[in-house]
Design goal:
The chain is mainly beta. Strands 1-2-4-7-6-5 form a 6-stranded antiparallel β-barrel.
Length: 132
């Protein structure tokens, strides 16, 4: 079997396990409501489609933000290799659907490790979720 054929089969198998849906977005600025003064982030759309949320390790890393204690968990979001645009550090990933865990819907993750590997079966994007 050729490398290309094996890679195509591996990518098809990886995509078959992507039972979640997500949307990546990049913050491009903000807008202010002149009436209330409320500042709202403005985003540019990125990759939207199938994904797989995976927590390689169930451990979290404690961190402090001012007086609040937050736990940062290392998580991966897998998307197809054909998924474009490729998410970058700082982009947000919003889970829009999940076949296996409805509690994931609405979760927001921030990309901290993009994935670049030509012979991979999926893009394994390192993300962090903050919870307090």
């Amino acid at each position: 079997m050729s490398v290309e054929r094996a890679l195509a089969r591996g990518r098809a198998a990886a995509e078959a396990r992507m039972r979640d849906e997500c949307a990546f977005r990049r913050r491009t600025g903000s807008s202010t409501d002149p009436r209330t003064g409320k500042i709202t982030p403005v985003y540019a759309d990125g990759y939207t489609g199938r994904c797989r949320v995976k927590m390689p390790s169930p451990q979290g890393t404690p961190a402090s933000a001012g007086e609040a204690v937050v736990v940062m968990s290392a998580i991966e979001v897998h998307i197809p290799m054909s998924g474009t645009p490729v998410p970058q550090v700082g982009d947000e990933c919003v889970i829009t659907g999940s076949a296996g865990d409805p509690a994931l819907v609405g979760a927001v993750f921030v990309v901290d490790r993009p994935h670049r590997q030509p012979d991979a079966t999926a893009r394994r994007i390192g993300v962090k979720e903050r919870s307090s």
